[in-house]
Amino acid sequence: MDDIRAQIRAAALNRHPEWHSSVGFKWERFVDSILDAAEDGDSDDGERYVLDGFYSERGSKRHRRIGGGKRYAHAGFFRAEHRNGRYRTHVKSPYAHAMHKSTCIGHEVRAGVSACSLGVQYGHQLEVSMTGPYAGAEAHAKYTGVGGGLYAGLGKVFARAGPITVSAGYDIDTEARVGLDGVKLKVFGTGINIGSNGIEANVLGMGIGLNAPVLEPITL
């Protein structure tokens, strides 16, 4: 275990974090990025284009440094994506996905289907997205926290402008989680999320959140 922690610390030092002004800093996401580095997970921050008709992909990745691995599969009828730095746009037609990851850091499994998804995002400050009818499930038990949920809805629209987030739609999402980012509990689309990144409340699929401005580390 001491050897694993030493590898994680070394990976964190090698990523040279920089700081920028953002909102809603999430400790879990930051720690996971360090853990992924220790697992030989490479991130691509350059420009990327994706344009596919019918696609079907599956694969696996074995983590040599800390043991375990990851298996994934996804398929759909159409997808398009453009990513350049902090700017990203994406469109997906009906698609399905599944992923299972198990290492000594923790375990994670998720699967889902959706009729469509599209969105535009710039960093963590500006975002507009829409998801069509969807269903899915997810569970995780990691150093950063534990939780799980069942998700189903007719559709959802989400918008973010600085510290304010707003969502609207009809869903029966049910989930519970506790970890570095705080506590979240939702039952049939109604619940509350209180954590390090702010507070969010949902009533029957309608939600509003307020994220506290912070300095967020970005790893390069």
Question: What is the topological layout?
Answer:
Layout: H1 2-14, E1 18-23, H2 27-38, E2 48-52, E3 55-62, E4 69-76, E5 79-84, E6 87-92, E7 95-103, E8 106-114, E9 117-122, E10 126-131, E11 134-142, E12 145-161, E13 164-171, E14 174-179, E15 182-187, E16 190-195, E17 198-203, E18 206-210, E19 213-218
Antiparallel strand pairs: 1-19, 2-5, 3-4, 4-7, 5-6, 6-9, 7-8, 8-11, 9-10, 10-12, 11-12, 12-13, 12-14, 13-18, 14-15, 15-16, 16-17, 17-18
The major sheet is characterized as: 7 strands, antiparallel, barrel
- Write the element-wise H/E pattern from the N-terminal end onward: HEHEEEEEEEEEEEEEEEEEE
Strand order of the largest sheet: 12-13-18-17-16-15-14
Uncertain stretches of 5 or more adjacent residues: 11-23, 40-48, 215-220
Helix content: 10-25%
The total beta strand count reads 19
Structural class: mainly beta
From the alpha carbons, calculate the radius of gyration and give it in angstroms. 18 Å
Strand content: over 45%
Give the overall shape, derived from the CA principal axes: globular
Q: Give the termini distance in whole angstroms.
A: 26 Å
Count of helical stretches:
2
Provide a concise account of the structure shown.
With 220 residues, this protein is mainly β. It has helices spanning 2-14, 27-38; strands spanning 18-23, 48-52, 55-62, 69-76, 79-84, 87-92, 95-103, 106-114, 117-122, 126-131, 134-142, 145-161, 164-171, 174-179, 182-187, 190-195, 198-203, 206-210, 213-218.
